[in-house]
Amino acid sequence: MIGLLPSFCVRLVVVAFLFLGSTAVLAQRTIRRPLKARTVEVVDSTVRLDSVAFPGKLVVVSGYEKPLRSTREALHVTNNDSTRLLKAVTLDISYFDVNGTQIHRRVVDLDCDIPSGETKMISFRSWDVQNRFFYAVGPKPRSHAYPFTVRLEVKLACYFSGQGTGS
Hints:
Elements: H1 4-26, E1 47-53, E2 59-65, E3 72-79, E4 85-96, E5 102-114, E6 119-125, E7 133-135, E8 146-163
Parallel strand pairs: 7-8
Antiparallel strand pairs: 1-8, 2-3, 3-6, 4-5, 4-8
């Protein structure tokens, strides 16, 4: 019996250690707040990112949609630049009820990676967190909901110029 006591004590200590260790892991915070933006410096001089204010019709936004109870909005972005890859766009979106009263406004930064001459559908989180609104031009829902319209303006277009002349 005395020979069993040390092994039992060892087992008890190991189980206690594992239990206490697992509770310590559960208590850790995995999300660090407040998050801060980092500034990244481009080290390779052969690659250049250009942020360009929206000129003319180089970027066309069309086909907006947001059905009732959807948590996402979607639209089509066309890159009309002849050579450069569109990396991101900044949109100023204003939302209006059917009477023309503004009900919300926001600025959205969207990453997109659209080659020259192509169109891609981009979706992003909806402003309508209660899922009570639907886009007035889209399909009419059967249940009671509030229609809205949008006005979009491209504020900024970020292009990737590609490789430089050096190799």
